[in-house]
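User: Please predict the structure of the protein below. I'd like the answer in structure-token form so I can feed it into my own downstream comparison script.

Assistant: Understood. Taking the following sequence of 148 residues as input:
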Amino acid sequence: MDKIDRKIVNLLQTNARASLKELSKACFISSPAIAARITKLEKAGIITGYHANIDMEKIGFHVKAFIQVQLEPRQKEEFYPYIQSIPNVIECNCVTGDYSEIMEVVFPSTTNLDDFINIIQQRFGKTSTQIVFSTSVDHRGIALQDNE
């Protein structure tokens, strides 16, 4: 990736709906050149998708939590497909430490969250849950620095 590619990635992380015209003005190259670079970045697997940021509370999901789960290695084969099928799980990561998985989840209420935790405990074992009071830094991209 060169300096222009990094600038395109930074701009798209800020606004994935930026037009080719806007990107070309910011990068001082033509729109077709921007399109070609974006295609190259997509084919290289650097750009993997485009997303809208949604205010979960405004669509009825008032509770955000992080649930840590202790899994045995043999349970992962069942756990991963199950978790992928639950739309309330917005992210799940395999981690080091006392727990092997950490999930970010959203639910309309603590009752719904509690029901989900009970299912996880019954099917997979021990959990630890932290309910989010506020978010000081929301999901964001990483600002790529100019290395040239």
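That's the full token string. The chain has two domains: 3-43, 56-131.
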